[in-house]
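Re-run requested by the PI after the first attempt was lost when the workstation crashed. Everything re-entered from the original request form. Ligand of interest: magnesium ion.
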Amino acid sequence: MNMKDTISIGHGGGGRLARDLIKNLFLKHLNNPKLAPLGDSAVFELNGSTIALTTDSFVVKPIFFPGGDIGKLAVCGTVNDLSVVGARPLYLSCGIIIEEGFSLKDLEAITLSIKESADKAGVEVITGDTKVIEKATGGNIYINTAGIGIIENSIALGIDKINIGDKIILSGTIGEHGIAVISKREGFDFESTIESDCASLNEITQKALKAGCIKFMRDPTRGGLAAVLNEIAEDGSLDIKIDEDAIPVRDDVKGICSMLGLDPFYIANEGKVVIVAAKGDAENILRALHNDPLGQNASIIGEITGKGEHGVYLKTSYGGTRILDMPVDDPLPRIC
Ligand code: MG
């Protein structure tokens, strides 16, 4: 068996490797009309209601990091995958896999964090499961959450709704989550401690939806902003033009990224959303984002410039244009 016959860490990275695995294996065998769009949540009708269902697993290392922990992440991540399809999140399940020897004190801290984050997002954990495995690498816990939500007001988002001229809005600064986790993991001692942006997006997305016509939303987690823009471009056969100067990145994140040889466009976020909005409504939606605590640095970062072929083009601060590629894998594994 050679390397190509086995799973690599990059298959979990949310980039090209992960996409190929999903399409060429999972979708090949499990395909159905609800799975095929590969949305953040599946959306379906049930007795006259539109329901969103999603699931996400969390393997972040370390489990406690500046700005959050695996419990908070497990709630926010699933709430956000419901929120970006326009759903109001209602209930979560929580499955926990723990290694033998794990600290009960840490388990309680994580449980309290789950409770606090769920309360904040207005969701309840209504079912769960606990499994214990033999000690492997030591001190590990893995959490899977599934979430169910309801889509109201006939909201129907999709990449197929996007047209030339639509604007691309980013709800805030990028890169903090990945940098916060990697700094803690590697024990980097930077001048400023970057905190994860981990937060539930249910309120800000509902405000945005009320402010104007939104075509599509996605949270830029693994693979970062670059992965989401490339997914939109590829799945919609769209050309996207982005303005580097309009993309909010904190100076300290920029500094750490250049020190580590990382590009903030490819770093994961856990409290940001990319919105594709109708041209005429973009300013109004931007104002609504600015009125939310999570959207203070929201910015219109680009627009859809063509249909038929696909590519993401970045107008750089120096005035040139370069292609912003789909990442192959995540530059920082196990950040969520
Ligand atoms: Mg998502």
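Saved to the shared folder this time. The helical segments are 16-30, 70-83, 104-121, 176-186, 202-211, 224-236, 251-260, 282-290.
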